[in-house]
Amino acid sequence: MKALNLIEKAFLLKKTAFFHELDLDLVLSIADKLDLNTFSPDTAIFSIGQETHHMYLIVEGKVKIEDEKRAVLAELRPGEFFGDEAIFTEKPQGYSAIAVTECVILSLSRSHLLTIISECPSVALNLLEAYTANIAFRKR
Predict the structure, then answer these.
(1) Looking at the whole model, is its pTM more than 0.90?
(2) Measured between alpha carbons, how far is 6 from 3 in angstroms, rounded to an integer?
């Protein structure tokens, strides 16, 4: 996949529950801080117990969320995000995220996200709302 330009990243962000209500200027600022990663099928994006300092947004592909017994808790698709809870708790991941198909993932670091939240508190509210909407797989 070709690299995404700033406008393409911003467009993807605006499609998510996390960022859809934000002004375009702020979304562009956030998009500028995103890293693009690709993962082959059956590749771990992160594993249970791993310390990560990013949240992840699926651009292309499918990601499965597994518990310690490898039971599938959720299958996520483009526009959905994961990994965000470790940013705030600074605890190791409580689940594994595995690429089911070839995946293109945007990631946002903890330091960038906290800077964004301090500049625009509505991002924190959007994150909380999106997090609670996805609480089912996070609490298993």
Answers:
(1) no
(2) 10
- Number of residues assigned to the chain: 140
pLDDT digits (tens, 9 = 90+) for 84-94: 877 778 888 98
- Average pLDDT in the 69-82 region? 92
Domains contained in the chain, CATH given? 6-138 (2.60.120.10)
Close Cβ partners of 8 (under 8 Å, ≥ 6 residues apart): none
**Cα–Cα dist 100/98, whole Å:** 6
Instruction: Specify whether the CB–CB gap between 26 and 122 falls below 8 A.
Output: no
Render pLDDT for 14-68 as a digit per residue (tens, 0 to 9).
Answer: 887 677 777 888 888 889 889 999 999 999 999 999 998 899 999 899 999 999 9
- Rounded to the nearest 10°, the torsion over CA 74, 79, 85, 87 is 140
Which of 104, 103, 106 lies closest to 32 in space, CA to CA? Answer: 106
